[in-house]
Amino acid sequence: MTPRDVPVVAEIESESFPCPWPAEQFSECLRFPMFVCLAAFLEGHIVGYTIGMCEEEGTMHILDLATAIECRRRGCARALLHRLFDEARSRGIRTAYLEVRTRNAPARALYADEGFTQVEFLPNNYPTPPDDGLRLAVALCP
After folding, report:
1. Dihedral pair phi/psi, residue 74, rounded to 5°
2. Is the peptide bond before 3 cis (omega within 30 degrees of 0)?
3. Coil, helix or strand for 7?
C-alpha cells in the first residue's frame, strides 16, 4: 500500500464497516515501520487491504482487513492474510491476533479456517451497531 492508494482503501473501508477509519488514519499507518500495510490488486485495481501492527515480544495485532464488496468470497482476504503472515514471520513475529464482531460469520469462518482460536470474549466491544467481540489468535509457525 502506498499513499496514493489511500483514497480507494478508505472507500473500501467505508463500504465494509459501520464505523470506518478516516483516510488520515491509513496515511498515518504508512508513516511508521511498525505497521505492515498491504493492498490486493486485481487487473490494476485495489480490491482489498490489510494492516497489521508489530508489537513487542513477537506479536502482531491485525488492525484491519477488508475486501471490496464485488470481490468477496473469492479468496482475496485469505490471500491478504497469507501475505501479512509472511511479512510478520520475516520480522520475527510468532503470534498474530485480531478482534472480530460475534455476528460477522463470514470473517469468523475465514479466521477459523486459517487456524485462529478464541482467546477472549469482549462484551459490548462494538458500539455501532451494538455487538460483542471476540479476540482471536493464531501461531505463525515458519
Report:
1. -125, 10
2. no
3. helix
- Beta carbons within 8 Å of 122's beta carbon, 6+ residues apart: 99, 132, 133, 134, 135
Give tens-digit pLDDT for 89-116: 999 999 999 999 999 999 999 999 999 9
Residues 6+ apart with CB under 8 A from 60: 36, 52, 53, 54, 84, 88, 93, 95, 96, 97, 140
Mean pLDDT of 41-69: 95
The CATH number of the domain covering residues in 3-139 = 3.40.630.30
Strand 45-55 vs strand 131-139: parallel, antiparallel, or unpaired?
Answer: unpaired
**For residue 142, what pLDDT is reported?**
64
Q: For residue 74, name the pLDDT band (cuts at 50, 70, 90).
A: confident
Given the DSSP bridges, would you call strands 95-101 and 59-67 parallel, antiparallel or unpaired?
parallel
Q: Which of 99, 105, 104 is nearest to 123 (CA)?
A: 99
Global pTM value: 0.93
- Residue 22 CB neighbours (<10 A): 11
- Domain extents for the chain? 3-139
